């Protein structure tokens, strides 16, 4: 009779080969939502990247091209100015990222503690991040003037002779790096603050009960548990430092001479001079430099987290 059909159907489903129910087929519907992002990624990243690799092997203009193999890369590393730009990029990224990591953590610890006007101080610390980088560069270009700048005039009042910040070849790159740290440390501070505030308060209370002082609580509680935030700050600071162009161009234009030239400014100058193939090769070198430095750090940090 028809009244027994559901039971019979259930019995047949329960006795499938292998002793289990048939597996439900996964619908491809969710994957359709990946198509818009995949198209955007392909059109605006993958295709230009492949084209850049190809054009770095050519001598090209807007109207023609000639395949020359690795000649652009050979010339790039033979030119002293171009090779020095690569070294300056590494130094600039190391200085700016190192200072942002240290100062960002110090400010984050201070601004998450019980201090007066904490909300206002947080706003002040983050404010430079919101200011135009070109505006910051032009402003500090005036402030760092060797004779008329406010910074050197203030140092003269306390008996210190300030250096020729942007004119002295030994100080130019470091001066720009310090301004970069002043503008970018607020972002590092916010990231660290998010990491510190996510730590359960019970850990700090337990450390206090065990007799741990402020330094030991920082070293054994704050520092290890805020490590994911620290990894983010290191990676973002390194990438930003190696790609920096606008601040350097606004303050020194790579001078005096080539003493503050970095990869981005060297590539821009080559484009201005009409050496499109050489400048494209410089872009590829910069791209590979970021990958070679950042990816091993990222994998190392993740591996250390997984083994804990």
Written description of the protein model:
This protein has a two-stranded antiparallel ribbon. The chain has a domain at 89-252: MetI-like fold (Orthogonal Bundle), CATH 1.10.3720. Helices cover 70% and strands 2% of the residues. The chain is mainly α and 308 residues long. It is built from 14 helices and two strands; from the N terminus they run ααββαααααααααααα. Keywords: Cell membrane, Membrane, Transmembrane, Transmembrane helix, Transport. It is found in: Cell membrane. Pfam families: BPD_transp_1. Residues 86-297 form the ABC transmembrane type-1 domain.
- Secondary structure category: mainly alpha
Just give the CATH class of the domain at 89-252.
Answer: Mainly Alpha
Q: So, the CATH homologous superfamily of the domain at 89-252? A: MetI-like
Strand content is under 5%
Low-pLDDT residue spans:
1-15
Query: Globular, elongated, flat, extended or rod-shaped: what is the shape?
Result: flat
The share of residues in helices is over 70%
* C-alpha-based Rg, rounded: 28 Å
Q: Concise description?
A:
With 308 residues, the protein is an all-alpha fold. 70% of the residues lie in helices and 2% in strands. It has a domain at 89-252: Orthogonal Bundle (MetI-like fold), CATH 1.10.3720.10.
Topology:
Blueprint: H1 5-14, H2 34-55, E1 58-60, E2 65-67, H3 71-78, H4 80-111, H5 118-130, H6 133-143, H7 150-157, H8 172-197, H9 201-209, H10 214-225, H11 227-243, H12 246-251, H13 263-273, H14 276-306
Antiparallel strand pairs: 1-2
């Amino acid at each position: 009779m028809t009244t027994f059909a559901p039971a019979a159907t259930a019995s047949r489903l329960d006795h499938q080969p292998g002793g289990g129910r048939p597996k439900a087929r996964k619908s491809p519907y969710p994957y359709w939502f990946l198509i818009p992002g995949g198209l955007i990624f392909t059109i605006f990243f993958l295709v230009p990247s492949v084209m850049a690799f190809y054009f770095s092997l050519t001598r090209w203009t807007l109207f023609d091209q000639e395949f020359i193999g690795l000649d652009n890369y050979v010339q790039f590393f033979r030119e002293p100015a171009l090779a020095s730009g690569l070294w300056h990029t590494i130094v600039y990224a190391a200085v700016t990222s190192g200072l942002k990591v240290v100062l960002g953590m110090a400010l984050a610890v201070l601004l998450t503690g019980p201090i007066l006007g904490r909300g206002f101080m947080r706003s002040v610390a983050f404010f430079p991040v919101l200011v135009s980088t070109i505006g910051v560069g032009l402003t500090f270009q005036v402030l760092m003037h060797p004779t008329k700048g406010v910074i050197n005039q203030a140092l003269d009042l306390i008996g210190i002779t300030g250096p020729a910040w942007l004119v002295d070849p030994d100080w130019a790159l470091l001066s720009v790096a310090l301004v970069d740290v002043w503008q970018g440390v607020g972002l590092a501070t916010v990231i660290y603050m998010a990491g510190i505030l996510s730590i359960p308060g019970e850990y700090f209370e337990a450390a206090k009960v065990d007799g741990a002082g402020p330094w030991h609580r920082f070293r054994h509680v704050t520092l290890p548990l805020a490590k994911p935030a620290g990894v983010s700050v290191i990676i973002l600071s390194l990438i930003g430092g190696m790609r920096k162009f606008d601040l350097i161009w606004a303050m020194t234009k790579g001078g005096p001479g080539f003493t503050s030239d970095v990869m981005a400014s060297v590539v821009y100058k080559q484009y201005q001079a009409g050496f499109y193939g050489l400048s494209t090769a410089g872009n590829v070198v910069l791209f590979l430099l970021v990958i070679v430095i950042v990816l091993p750090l990222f994998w190392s940090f993740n591996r250390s987290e997984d083994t804990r």
